[in-house]
Design brief:
Elements lengths: L3 E4 L6 H11 L6 E4 L10 H10 L3 E3 L3 H10 L8 H10 L3 H9 L4 E3 L3 E4 L14 H6 L15 H4 L5 E4 L8 E3 L2 E3 L9 E6 L4 E6 L8
């Protein structure tokens, strides 16, 4: 049986991803879907991009850090965060190779029973009306979508499909009535977490290092 392995924010943590896939016995009929933020902060941004570009078993939605890099390379006057600046400097010589890939990353991936998005979805808003800012930045439902204070969107969301998301690191997967958060802070020295849809099972790999302090 083929499996769909939805993995949390990678942030260049290529080695941890490889360890996880070895642990689960990743096969030719399996597929990996990432919740975004393939790059920045971690040590092997290039390796992660090359993997997702070259192997059709790997797909990803776009995360806020991926999107910032894409917008910068498209010529927007954008103030990058320090980690984004570092990744821009690291990869800019090859941006003509990587930009087409970033350009085709979607904001959502529909897996039938589940929907993958980087940050979140507004409750009671149709998918076609969700904004790119919410899909890449949303945490809570107050005036500031990026605030850690307030009502988490996933505690209220009750859509038809179970949403698998990242963006908001936590020591354990975040859980709502119809949403599961998979960012468990690998790049900060914690864990890389994945959810195997067909088995309703979580897989965890410990970070090899603290790549960035929180």
């Amino acid at each position: 049986m083929s499996r769909t392995i939805v993995v949390g924010d990678l942030h260049g943590c290529y080695d941890e991803l490889m360890e996880m896939l070895e642990t689960v016995g990743f096969g030719q009929d399996d597929r990996v879907v990432c919740v975004g933020d393939l790059v920045t902060k971690g040590p092997k941004n290039r390796e992660v991009l090359e993997l997702f570009m070259s192997d059709r078993r790997f797909r990803s939605v776009i995360g806020n850090h991926d999107l910032a890099l894409r917008r910068k390379w498209q010529g927007e006057k954008l103030k990058l965060k320090p980690s984004q600046k570092a990744t821009h400097k690291e990869l800019k010589a090859d941006k003509e190779k990587y930009l087409p890939f970033l350009n085709q990353l979607p904001f959502t991936i529909d897996l039938g029973t589940h929907l993958v998005v980087h940050a979140g979805l507004r409750p009671d808003v149709e998918l076609y009306s969700q904004t790119s800012e919410d899909m890449t930045l949303l945490r809570t439902l107050g005036k500031d979508r990026e605030s850690h204070d307030g009502t988490p969107w996933y505690e209220v969301y009750d859509g038809e499909k179970v949403v698998l998301f990242g963006h908001w690191p936590s020591s354990e997967p975040r859980r709502g009535p119809r949403a599961i958060g998979l960012d468990t802070g690998c790049v900060y020295g914690y864990n890389l977490t994945a959810y195997i849809i067909e088995e309703d099972k979580f897989i965890t790999t410990h970070a090899h290092h603290v790549y960035e302090a929180r």
